[in-house]
């Protein structure tokens, strides 16, 4: 079975609880935005990497890559982390989880901290913009991305366009697409199925649920931060 997990946003303990109720030996895929906001970004990335789970890139991974690259490049100047927009969108919590001193400018962080950041970059840069699975759903190919890309699938070979859409698109499906697109990025109270697409972001990182969607069966599993190991099965179908 294949389970797709919504935006984790550094909520490591919730992730462990969710994986614990997913059937063993299942294929697990993440829709990106596994870092930032929560206190466990480092542990989440290590968990994904250690278990060789699949993950696409989210806009938060993209923002971290760009911020860290610039930060490390300009080590001759006193550039503070707080000057980066990413820092205020959960980046602060991510840096703290990696043991980075966020009060120092770039030319004063230690070599150990530099190596930590370089290793994080090395992993994040391997994440693809989307994954096309060897599965079909409703007679359509299944594609995993961070944001909804179904309307732009015919332009998937245009890296510039597909990057913009896969990372930042906040529009929801309004008609049938040529793929069964499972994505996150835009949170809803429950997993949302609309026009052969599924949004699995249920607000984890904002005090809400973390959810997983089974591609083959349509089953939904969720854990609620306020109720440890509570199992839900809610999916809201619009069309």
From TrEMBL:
Pfam families: Metallophos. One of its GO terms (molecular function) is phosphatase activity. The lineage of its organism: Bacteria, Pseudomonadati, Campylobacterota, Epsilonproteobacteria, Campylobacterales. GO terms for biological process: RNA decapping. This is Calcineurin-like phosphoesterase domain-containing protein. One of its GO terms (cellular component) is cytoplasm. It comes from the Bacteria. InterPro entries: Ap4A_hydrolase, Calcineurin-like_PHP, Metallo-depent_PP-like, Ser/Thr-sp_prot-phosphatase. Residues 3-150 form the Calcineurin-like phosphoesterase domain.
